[in-house]
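Researcher: Next sequence.
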Amino acid sequence: MSNTITAKMVNDLRIATGAGLMDCKKALIEANGSVEEATTILRKKGAASAAKKADRATKEGLIESYIHVGGKVGVLIEVNCETDFVARNEDFKAFVKDLCLQIAAASPACVTREEVPEADLAKEREIAAAQVEGKPPAAIQKIVEGKLEKFYSTVVLLDQPFVKQPEKTIKELLTERIAKTGENIQVRRFVRYQLGA
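Model: Next structure:
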């Protein structure tokens, strides 16, 4: 039994996800009117769309700065996109500003997992393994991997929960933005300054 899809449901889903009206309507039909399931469908399509765009060149974008109240923390970030049109878009500018706030608040060390130094990973593995000594080897491996995931979510920007919406990671936010703009977007680099650090 399918639910009736109303224009209000489609519009509400569009506002919530940023997807196009027709995509929202198709997702609601596919989900039999379930907004939650339709949101999941749209997120999966957005992730697939982002993966297809990952190899596109990103030569435009913004360099944004943020100085926290009191002047004790500052952030400088470069976020790239494909066209100047997107770089000038207010949504893109707001996204870059949100990334600055994220970096100021959560203090990540790098953008991606690949940038985490191998020495830091080895140290975290060693600490995690020492904490679970005496357990079966299979359990130790799973526990160590779980602790490494937690480590990544503290030091890797894309793995961190978004400070304004903790149920989303920065990577999910980036994927949504890619799906909405139709362009590849990359967080190229950032620097976080803290007084006295």
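Model: The chain is about 55% helix and 15% strand. The mean pLDDT is 85.
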